[in-house]
Amino acid sequence: MIRVLLVDDQPLIRSGFRAFLDLEDDIEVVAEAANGIEALALVAEHLPDIVLVDIQMPVLDGIETTRRIAADPTLAGVHVVILTNYGLDEYVFHALRAGAAGFLVKDIVPEDFLHAVRVAARGDALLAPSITRKLINRYVTQPLPGTTGPGLEELTGREREAIVLVAHGLSNDEIADRMVISPLTAKTHVNRAMTKLHARDRAQLVVLAYESGLVTPRQNRV
After folding, report:
1. What is the pLDDT of residues 8-34, one digit of tens each?
2. Cα–Cα distance between 2 and 50 in angstroms, integer?
3. How many CB atoms lie within 10 A of CB 74?
4. Does pTM top 0.85 for this prediction?
5. CA–centroid distance for 9 within its chain
6. 195: which residues sit within 8 A by CB, 6+ positions away?
7. Cα dihedral value 208, 210, 213, 217, nearest 10
8. Are 26 and 1 spatial neighbours (Cβ–Cβ below 8 Å)?
9. Which pLDDT does position 221 carry in this prediction?
C-alpha cells in the first residue's frame, strides 16, 4: 500500500486529489495538511511514502517544507513530490535542490498522475526525461561553478558513466542499453552513486552532479 500525505492550502484541490487517489486499491491517503507546519507534524506521525506538496502555501511554503523533510534522517524513506500550476519555474528548481524527488503539474492527466505516484513510491525514475532535460538546460545557460563534494573520489568509472547518462535524462533500461549491461546492473550503478554522493533520489543526483562539476553542459552535448 502506497501511503500519501496531501499538502495544499486549498481544500478543494486536496479533496479532488484525495477522491481520485482513494479509488485506487494500492494507494491510501493517510492525512491532509493546509500548510508546511501542519505537514511536518503529520509526516512525523504517519511516515508516508509520498508527500504531495503545493509549492506556494502560507505559514511555511513547499520549498522550506521539502528542505526540512529532506534534512531529517528519520524521514529518509519519505519522498516529496512538488505540486505546481506552472512548469519548471524557479520555485520548482529550488525545491529540487532542497531535496524534492520530482514534481507534478496540477493539470496532469489522471493516468500520468497515478503512474507518477507509483514511480515515486518505488524510488525509481522520479523525473520524466523531459523534466530532466529542462534542469540540464538551466545549467547550460547558467552553469554553476564546480565544487568538490563528498563521495566524488569514491565513484567508480562505471558509476560516473551512469551519472552522465542519468543527466541526459535516460531511464535505467536506456542506461543499460547504452552501457551494454543488464537493467539491474544499471540500477545498481545509479543507486551506489546516489549513496556515495548522499543523494536522496535521481533528481538530487542530477543536481549534485552538475553542481559538483562531475557532469558539465559540454559533456551533456556530446
Report:
1. 999 998 998 999 899 999 999 999 999
2. 8
3. 9
4. no
5. 21
6. none
7. 170
8. yes
9. 45
Phi/psi class of residue 123: alpha, beta or left (left: φ > 0; alpha: ψ in -120 to 50)? left
pLDDT at res. 222: 40
Check if the beta carbon of residue 2 is closer than 8 Å to that of residue 46: no
User: What residues of the chain score a pLDDT lower than 50?
Assistant: 125, 143-144, 146-148, 219-222
Spatial separation of the C-alpha atoms in residues 107 and 54, rounded to whole Å: 13
> From CA 42, how far away is CA 75, in angstroms rounded?
12
Q: Are 193 and 162 in contact (CB under 8 A)?
A: yes
- Helix H, strand E, coil C: the string for 158-211 is HHHHHHHHHHCCCCHHHHHHHHCCCHHHHHHHHHHHHHHCCCCCHHHHHHHHHH
